[in-house]
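How a chain folds remains the central question behind the approach discussed here. The record that follows shows the chain in one-letter code together with its fold in token form:
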Amino acid sequence: MEIRNTVHPDDFKHYTTERIKKEFLVENLFATNEIKLVYTHFDRMIVGGACPVKPIRLEATKEIGADFFLERREMGIINVGPKGKVSVDGEEYTLDTKDGLYVGVGSREILFSSNDGNNPAHFYFLSSPAHRKYPTEIIEIKNAEPIHLGAANESNVRTIYKYIHPDGVKSCQLCMGMTILEPNNVWNSMPCHTHARRMEVYFYFDLPDDAVVFHLMGEPHETRHIVMRNEEAVISPDWSIHAGAGISNYIFIWGMIGENQTFTDMDTVNMEELQ
């Protein structure tokens, strides 16, 4: 497991491009038949990816100080690749592309597998500390709550699908969902916002190999950017904006933990404040 420490915003504004990537960018999430884990001390979120050619088990590591991975944690999983299965304590859940799964605290054995090992699933997941158990539940994208936002003249027509949230599949702390931009639309989360009560992770996918997203971060008066490519994630601290623009449309998964699960709890940044 890779560890990322917290960063003070006064230090962040002096970072080089390479240092920003080192602290916040999560690459190579889907190494063949491996599980990649990145632990950030921002609210102790774990970002993970699994690409199973044959079944692989999610194991606890020393960094979380537990006998099994979800002893004191919950997790949300979304499959961004071909069809696969997640087994939770012997019960198997089939996830097609863009389907999700919530797994509650106390679940002991998590196994990832693909329907076709020659064309493996790509399971992206987030895990947060939890003190209350909620039932494991599959979330098919067709049943996720959609919110239609944006305007063509602002190049941000998009649909937000809520997967794990207080009015849907419930969790202790974790909120998670997916935003799909329509063709010819490139902006996300603009006008931008912060929410000092929650950190967030963005995961970008469905990008052509030669396409990029310019992900914006930093305090509103000290913005920076990271060049993101397909199937990469970025950690967004509580003090940072999180927005972006691509050279084509794309999809991104968002996940949050912190003081509350109120989706609309955000501090909007006026355009004239951005620098």
